[in-house]
């Protein structure tokens, strides 16, 4: 209520919502840096060892695909779909066991990569929420402590 009465807040909310995340992050180059830092974290964080082992030893191709996907996901050019078809991320991850721990490890790598490469903390928070929704949607395993109920 308080913020809604002040015109500058409305103006800045308005301009933020008209811009895509792709525009706000600054285009292809910052997304490339984000993905680079993300996989560096996956390579080095002990908590990420399990999800790192699901990926190929050479990450060159995976990096290029994630960059193309994120460009499109953030509202930029749709080269990913043109090259690889509809993302169908849940389906594409079905071959990999993704439980809550895997989701959280992925998010931890991404959160740290965002902290290193995105200055705008509001944008970081919005992207973190969007990443979490996607990561949780991809989850395809119940936690092991539920196993004895099956
Ligand atoms: C939740 C934990 C996640 C795990 C464990 C995981 C793991 C993986 C693995 C192992 C691959 C295959 C790499 C390869 O051999 O080509 C992959 C591909 C991919 N992942 Fe994830 N991922 C997760 C979450 C996400 C999220 C949240 C996104 C997007 C925001 C995402 C986007 C992608 C994309 C775009 C591909 C390539 C799909 C294609 O082949 O076109 N992943 N992921």
UniProtKB/TrEMBL annotation:
Keyword Transport: yes
Keywords noted in UniProt: Heme, Iron, Metal-binding, Transport
Gene3D superfamilies for the chain: Globins (1.10.490.10)
This protein's record includes keyword Cell cycle: no
Pfam families in the cross-refs: Bac_globin
Superkingdom of the source species: Bacteria
UniProt family annotation: Belongs to the truncated hemoglobin family. Group II subfamily.
UniProt xrefs under PANTHER family: TWO-ON-TWO HEMOGLOBIN-3
Descriptive protein name: Group II truncated hemoglobin
Organism: Uliginosibacterium paludis
